[in-house]
Amino acid sequence: MCCEQELLGAAEDGDGASVARLLAAGVDPNGTDESGATALMAAAQGGNLAIGEELLAAGADPHADDEGGATALMFASLGGHLPVVRWLLDNGADPTAATVDGNTALVFAAMHGHLAVVGELLESGADPNAASEEGRTALMAAAERPDNLGVVEALLAEGADPDSASEEGITALMSAAEAGLLPVVEALLSAGADPRAKDEDGDTALDWTKDRAVAKRLERAMGGGKPARRAAEKGGAPPKGLSPTRVAELGADPRAAQPGNAAALDRAAALRI
Q1: CA 93 to chain centre
Q2: Cβ–Cβ < 8 Å for 84, 47
Q3: DSSP one-letter code for 65
Q4: Taking the domains of the chain in order of start, what are their residue ranges?
Q5: In a 10 Å sphere around its CB, with 0-12 CB exposed, 13-18 middle and 19+ buried, how is residue 35 labelled?
Q6: What is d(CA 205, CA 231) in angstroms, rounded to the nearest whole number?
Q7: I need a labelling partner for 127 at 20 to 30 A (CA). Which of 35, 110, 237, 238 fits?
Q8: What are the pLDDT digits (tens) for 6-43?
Q9: Residue 171, phi then psi, degrees to nearest 5
Q10: For the domain bounded by 137-253, which CATH number is listed?
């Protein structure tokens, strides 16, 4: 186990010489740490393609998952490492695989605004409407992130349902409205998102926003018949509340975004993605 941990650490550090030495000494390329993470996962997370290739040549399993169901493809997608993502897909990695909480590589790429990775995963068969146990989709994860319009548009173009809702009834439009992202709100409305959809508390996207421009746009979409912009008019009032992805966005990993996901993804927090 100690040598396998050393291999994982070398892969994580990008130490190709140590990886080569350990593999030559017969260390199992599929050895895991206490959370089930492998050296290939560590290499994928760091975007170390050369080390990944060496591990694969030594017999590393690109389909392996850790105790939370996270795969090397998910780690690479989380970090936005397009060359590694492409290489893993070329070597049989499953773009539809999900963690124990139902999150896919597409969700992790969308969550962090990795447009090129999102496109690659969609082209390889990732389901834009795959949902976690809580009902969250890649579109919901993308819609609440600033400067993520391209990802939202890419998902919509591939058939993402703009009206999908979480268990709490939260839609992508509500998340975008809460974040004050007018271009994303526009894109979702243009794709047919229902501005009258309500969450479990009976609130619509208009109730979620404090942004005046977003509130005006939503009012127009609803027929202009709601004079009370509850959040927009009460400038000091807090928004409805941040979703799990929004809370975890800065420096978080898939496990933080969805409690119970891979313990091995603790290392991702250090990347401050």
Answers
A1: 17
A2: yes
A3: B
A4: 137-253
A5: middle
A6: 10
A7: 35
A8: 999 999 999 999 999 999 999 999 999 999 999 999 99
A9: -105, 170
A10: 1.25.40.20
